[in-house]
Amino acid sequence: MLRRSPEKGSTTVALAFAIFLVVMTVITVYIFWAKIWWFPPAITNFGHEIDAQFMRTLIITGVVFVAAQFGLAFAIYKFRDQGQKAAYFEGNNTMEIIWTLATVVLFVGLGLYARSAWAEVHFMGASEGALPIEITAQQFAWNFRYAGPDGKFGRTKPELVSASTGNPVGLDSTDPSSKDDVVSPVIAVPVGREVELIIRSQDVTHSFYVRELRLKQDAVPGMEIHMHFTAEVPGNYEIACAELCGLGHYRMHSMLQAMSEPDFEKWMKDQEAANQ
Amino acid sequence: MVTHENGGGHGHHQAPTGFIAKYVFSIDHKVIGIQYLFLALFSVFVGMGLSLLMRLHLGWPNAHWSFFKGGLMTPEQYLALMTMHGTIMVFMVLTTAPQSGFGNYFLPIQIGAADMAFPVLNMLSFWTTFVSLVVMVAAFFVSGGAPIGGWTSYPPLSALGEITGPGQGAGETLWIIGLAIFCGASLMGALNFITTLIDLRAKGMTLGRLPLTCWTWFVTAILGLLAFGVLLAACILLLLDRIAGTSFFVPGGLVITDQVITWHKGGSPLLWQHLFWFFGHPEVYIAILPGMGVASHLLSTFSRKPVFGYRAMVGAICGIGFLGFCVWGHHMFISGMSPYSAFAFSILTMTIGVPSAIKTFNWLGTLWGGKITFNCAMLYALGFVSLFVSGGLSGLFLAQPSLDLYLHDGYFVVAHFHLIMGVAAIFGMFAGLYFWFPKMFGRYLNEGLGKVHFWLTFIGVYCIFMPMHFLGLAGHPRRYFDTTAVEFLQKLQPVHVFISIAAFITIGSQLLFLFNFFWSLFAGKEAKEENPWHATTLEWSISSPPPFDNFGGVEPVVYHGPYEFSVPGAADDYIPQNLAPELVKKA
Questions:
Q1: Structural domains of chain B, with CATH
Q2: How confident is the model at residue B8, as a pLDDT?
Q3: What's phi and psi for B509, nearest 5 deg?
Q4: Cys-Cys link to B376, which of A268, B147, B156, B434 (CB 3.0-4.6 A)?
Q5: Measured between beta carbons, which residues in chain B are less than 8 angstroms from residue A39?
Q6: Is the peptide bond before A140 cis (omega within 30 degrees of 0)?
Q7: CB under 8 Å to A79, separation ≥6 — which residues?
Q8: Residues B546-551: what's their mean pLDDT?
Q9: Domain A127-275 in CATH: superfamily?
């Protein structure tokens, strides 16, 4: 007996639903596959590891995504009401155990696999001889401080902070090691040499974010957070603030300039000269 | 069974007379449920209106509209819209409608009780929620406007007053007070739900015979009880930081626009994040669990099959609830928290994918071999499953701290939580509404209009939120007023235009729903039968709408599980829970 009423088991609705799911799935997978909107190329070795882990995750979730949406589409079309009698079963313990174990292995395994990249950036500190650069975030600007020829960061005091008179991080000029500190609105780094970032904030929480480094770190008032990286490819890369910090959040922008060691030495010299 | 004076026990129940006692300060759980639904309906249109303005701006940030002098909005207005959109949607829609709305109405009926355990407390919960909505919305109308710190309201941005930005003065204070009041309301509600479910189940309604909707409302209430207390404490501390000079969240030595903050020292901004997300992650499940319950319930009813793996489903609901409290740190991978704890949180978060996967498998298992009817309720339930999969899988990326280094606080996250917590949860509500509307109001929602609304919404939300993943992959940070200041963002502007157009169509189609809702309320097809869907649970054994005391003073007796469809040997393809075994017609 075939019943035809618009609400029961309409073949049109079932077919439309199934087709929509298939089309949506195919388009989504295609855009991921074709990399139409994608990460910019990574400039650190660590970044390549992240990209590899991203691809592993994408493949696993992609397979699950396609299987689930297609499975749903198939079930919707296949089991539409055509006057048949529904089967009666309340479950299947073996299958429950199999797919529970399968997802445990897949998901938790993926999480464990991701450990190494995270460990590299966070569990291990910067190596000896890394170039230290202190980042001080403020509404809505980035300040990058280099220790200068003496290799020491000088003292800073909150009450000396005055962005309007050219002392945005509050350098204390009575401290001799402050005198040669260089404060720059952009960050220059030498290619191939490790850089240690010391990330601070003066006012509210900001977040230092460079896409090509595959790094993001909140700058938290009251904390000094260390990060490290080695840029491998020269170029100019945009820095955007990634943590809502007030009305100028969207324009809290700067540049990371990765340059060869000689270019960097020259840049540093120029900055020091301008500092005198 | 416990009987309370004026409470949910059977007997001594009289319908109130007079408009105020009946419809305004009602102690009837059904009226309160409807009040919550209307509050959520109002809020969802406000929240959507705010997103409409945001999308108008994001699509065409440089356009000059003749009716808005000097551009559509300023950065602070954009952030205020964003903050209030998130706040209103999360608290006033996703927390109230699925749980306090549908739960209030149907939990007592589905377990065979005459009312909630504490009807007066129930009324108080609703009116407290109402006050919190008024206080929050008032933030728009004070000097400086609504807060700009986002629904997460991280200090110090939220702790130092107007000095950190417009809206962070009186607006932020009202926001915090409103939220604290909301916490109080939710705590009262949670207590009531838990007590009702434990104490007021009818004879024979064992835990193993509870409909999955009741299981999800029960677990959601437990989550609410444990989570909102923490948020309440956090709100009070933040308020004290602002008005009493304490420093729970503010460290010393801060300088804001060259002014030294001398009156704070020793606080930690991370403390707020821990407290907030200890609440905030369970909140995600508070929003989505009832939707899962409704989806399971409807997939079973409209494919005329028992829920596949009922026990596994209950286990998964409880597992999600428990794990929901162990994963808040995944919101803080890049916050400066210990990287070792990030690793632990990551593994726990990956684990939460397991019960979610179990549920998805079981939903497919429920459909398998069934006889599926495609009414609007079922379409939304099926849409829920699709959206839950799409929105859930991106969580596997965000659960890995190393990938989160790139994706955190970007549009990938926006896509993820909107699909799963926003849209999937709302599909659960639509499914519930189409299903229960005839029971609640004695009339059907219009199926034809409903189908048009479904298709526009289903296609629309995918067109809005799928592309946001790609913005996220390209590195687009969230909460950006516009894309002009960053070069790599400018190239993404066409995607914003596409999303905005999709959003306008989707939002516009919600007017169809609004029309359908009110038109059907007064002029919809009458639902004369008690049980038009041939469903099994107790609400379908009483008249539509149900009488004041639900079961006419007689406690129902339950003999069957909740999903006895197409049982071999029975004449009908459903066996109501309260049908005595000797009355089940043999085939």
A1: 19-583 (1.20.210.10)
A2: 53
A3: -70, -15
A4: B434
A5: 406, 473-475
A6: yes
A7: B303, B367, B368, B369, B370, B371, B372
A8: 94
A9: Cupredoxins -  blue copper proteins (2.60.40.420)
